[in-house]
Design goal:
The chain is α/β, with parallel strands linked by helices and about 270 residues long. It has eleven helices and five strands; from the N terminus they run H-H-H-E-H-E-H-E-H-H-E-E-H-H-H-H. Helix content is about 50%, strand content about 10%. Bound molecules: adenosine-5'-triphosphate. The site of adenosine-5'-triphosphate has 19 residues, from helix 4, helix 8 and helix 10.
């Protein structure tokens, strides 16, 4: 159903304050916020505003969050769609969904379109994959390319797409005037993990002043999503024990639990 695919929100709640670390990526998307807010300033000397940018990085590193923050900061509507939604779609449906999405965004422009897991539709054409009908996927990809070429310089719709496999994408997507910018969104280093803890501890009632450097040291290889998970899990562990506030030990137990989950996930992959 439409409701499942189009998550249209004038999302003014997500801002750059919600995105910890990722300084380089934030700097790059700040420019996109400027384009959305002040298109005339940038086109006045004959320049063209970019139509799309690719957010590239491992799962859970904040790509969706960053895209929402761009919409939030620019105060424009956020339209989103996930590549994996197309996996089991009937022939012809994918292309018309893409057409509808772009039409809605243009009607409400300036706007952001966010395509999560673009590799599910944007894999190089003519190569087999095991996710649904290949013809359908190709039709959907072709429609996406058509839409991106179709909108003029004055539409003021910017398309952000996320992937963790930029290498498998059809090169046609990266051509000038399409997703011609790539923004890297990496796993957080120790300093960034500390900042992510700070963000996700905001709503949590803690029993003591937590040593965030210690927590950051305990979580190498964790993504932002994993850290968000740790904070939430710690609060649930403490609540289960009828505690009035969350302790350091609850965080350590939560870390152990998430590590266990990550190990299981890796076993399935390898
Ligand atoms: P995927 O590739 O799996 O879709 P993603 O890169 O889009 O992942 P998000 O969905 O943005 O990741 O991240 C999931 C959640 O993890 C966010 O909603 C947020 O709570 C938390 N998170 C991830 N990265 C950060 C970050 N840099 N700062 C703060 N929170 C983060």
């Amino acid at each position: 159903s439409k409701a499942k695919l189009f998550d249209e929100k004038t999302d003014t709640r997500t801002s750059f304050k919600d995105v910890a670390g990722l300084e380089g990526a934030k700097e790059e998307v700040e420019e996109i916020v400027e384009f959305l807010k002040n298109p005339d300033k940038y086109t006045s000397l004959g320049g063209k505003i970019p139509k799309g940018a690719l957010l590239v990085g491992p799962p859970g590193t904040g790509k969706t969050l960053l895209a929402k923050a761009v919409a939030g900061e620019a105060k424009v509507p956020f339209f989103s769609l996930s590549g994996s939604d197309f996996v089991e779609m009937f022939v012809g449906v994918g292309a018309s969904r893409v057409r509808d999405l772009f039409k809605q965004a243009k009607d409400k422009s300036p706007a952001i379109i966010f395509i999560d897991e673009i590799d599910a539709i944007g894999r190089a054409r003519g190569k087999n994959n095991f996710t649904g009908s290949n013809d359908e996927r190709e039709n959907t990809l072709n429609q996406l390319l058509t839409e991106m070429d179709g909108f003029g310089t004055n539409t003021n719709v910017i398309v952000l797409a996320a992937t963790n496999r930029a290498d498998v994408l059809d090169k046609a997507l990266m051509r000038a005037g399409r997703f011609d910018r790539q923004i890297y969104v990496d796993l957080p280093d120790i300093r960034e993990r500390k900042e992510i803890f700070e963000v996700h501890l905001r709503p949590i009632k803690t029993a003591e002043t937590l040593d965030l450097d210690f927590l950051a040291r305990q979580t190498p290889g964790f993504s932002g999503a994993d850290i968000a998970n740790v904070c939430n899990e710690a609060a649930l562990i403490a609540a289960r024990k009828e505690k009035k506030a969350v302790t350091k030990q609850d965080f350590l137990d939560a870390v152990d639990r998430i590590v266990g989950g990550l190990e299981k996930k890796n076993k399935i992959i390898t």
